[in-house]
Amino acid sequence: MASHQSIGSDSSSKSGKSSSMGQQVLCYHNQIAPLRTVKYDGPTKGMHFYGCSYWAEQRTCGFSKWVDEIDEVGDLQMLLQQKDSKIAELEQEMEELK
After folding, report:
1. N or C: which terminus of the chain has fewer CB atoms within 10 Å of its end residue's CB?
2. What is the pLDDT of the chain when averaged over all its residues?
3. Quick one: pLDDT at residue 79?
4. CB burial readout 67-79, b (16+ within 10 A) else e
């Protein structure tokens, strides 16, 4: 998905805002991605998205996710973490059996 930040988005941010799953959204700098609102006229005006924490400093990493996309990403991240934990658990079990 293209970065929506460059399409007239303002940094009206609420630092530390968490997604609806309760986890913080991080940009590619591994910093909290503030919640932002598209300010410019157009079909996305008023929509909320998470953007790079360095947007105001113009050192953006290009991270941008619409608020409704975060739940999908969060669900997948949680699933991956569960699978990683299970793999580590099974690897430890294998070591103990050797």
Report:
1. C
2. 75
3. 75
4. beebeeebeeeee
Look at residue 11 in the predicted model and tell me its pLDDT: 39
Enter the DSSP assignment of 55. Answer: G
Q: How far apart are CA 58 and CA 68, in angstroms?
A: 25
pTM of the model: 0.50
Pairing of strands 64-66, 35-38: unpaired
Cα 62 from Cα 81, distance rounded (Å): 24
DSSP element (H, E) containing 92: helix 67-97
8 Å CB contact between 49 and 73:
no
Average of pLDDT values for 36-62?
Answer: 88
Query: Once rounded to an integer, what is the mean pLDDT over residues 31-53?
Result: 91
Q: Which of 55, 45, 70 lies closest to 5 in space, CA to CA? A: 55
d(C-alpha 5, C-alpha 38), whole Å: 8
Q: Among all chains, which residue has been given the structure tokens 């699933």?
A: 79
